Here is the input.
Amino acid sequence: MAIATLCLQPPAWKTQTMESTAPVSLTSLLNSLHSHLQQQTQLLPALHSQLGLPHTSLADELSALEQELTACVERQIDLRRKQVDEWMEKCAAVESDCGRYSKALGGHIKVAGSGIGELRKEHVLPKRYDALAEHQERLRQVSTTVCF
Here is the structure.
């Protein structure tokens, strides 16, 4: 199995215990990985020796493992950053729409409830988006009753 595929699926040792373990914290993850990597990489010198590989191949393999593990973590972080950016863009679009409604409503804005500033205090972006969308709908409904 190529090193690159290691990041795509959980290792066999982890899938056997995934259901039975408590939620993973950063500390427990690091401790678990440290123990597992230490146990497994200690097997490499003997395996390299049995295969008759040159001594430099062990250092090269460990370096490749380090690079793959680092890249795997960075890909996960990039994925989450992109998700945050997408939610921020969605929230900004709804906020912009709410701003247009608010400007058009002028003095009738009090009828629509809390303002965008209050809704921005929500740090969980999907919840913020939902609250903004509800606010947007209230503003839309007020605008149709005021304008007609």
